[in-house]
């Protein structure tokens, strides 16, 4: 009897450790729709010390500063063979395992991307805005994620730009979650849509389209990154502030009204008049992400209402808007985000910083997925196969 009890204890301990190991690793299936030369790169922050990490081809996260040559200053490229994951042939999967990681990105490209370490612990990643980097002439994109304790959060973001389209399936312990992403020609269609919008309203939306030095269309920048659209919201902000100086605006059930050029709310939170650039970025001026959780929630709702153009339409005095059919139906509004959603196969995708804002009972249009992960599949360059 004692031996049987001992055996049960041993088996219980074995199952515990097996489950613990499984919870610490996740299989990622990368399905290559892009090209036979597609590559992937992984960056993130160590969950323990917060240090920068990259994943090697062996699936192990490592400190990229360990590749620096002693006595050499400035930016040093991380050796390509230490970080490049070569994907399989077009329309085939590649399998990768990951352990816990925070603030991670998976970059994908049809060519080579460069990453670099900087004196003092700095790190240089690809940038869609810096034409001086080699990645300027590459077709690339990225997805943001975090994994730990068996839980995965992943975001198919188009907040900064639209480049290589991505699709996501997250198999959890309970259900299959999915963001279907975009077709391979999304960049061309998004650029065409913005050009048509510009022809209609006279705004330089087409300036968001980025071409390589040989004229090939590579990506579409989000409008906050387009200098020619910097003042797009200025007049609308004035109209909103004027309207709500004589009537109340409800934000998350708090009543707010403009007084002395400040939106004053009855819960003690106040919002200064935003600039056009404040609206685009949703992270500066009155939209700076500080204060109580209540304020942060109100900040996200107010900035989302600007982008979706719902503040001056029917029912605009109650935010967040409960009718997704009113989003982007007025001018001005974020035409880039509107078209990103229109082109998405399931009409979801992160088009601006607070695209996850929604009224109670309404669908989440951001495409953000979260759950206790068993397996993650990512379509690179187009949708996953059915």
UniProtKB/TrEMBL annotation:
Signal peptide bounds: 1-23
Q: Name one Pfam family in it.
A: Glyco_hydro_64
Q: What is this protein called?
A: GH64 domain-containing protein
Q: Does the keyword Transferase apply?
A: no
The UniProt keyword set, sorted, is: Signal
Q: Where is the GH64 domain?
A: 23-378
Gene3D superfamilies noted in UniProt: Beta-1,3-glucanase, C-terminal domain, Thaumatin
Tree of life domain:
Eukaryota
PANTHER family xref list: GLUCANASE B, PTHR38165
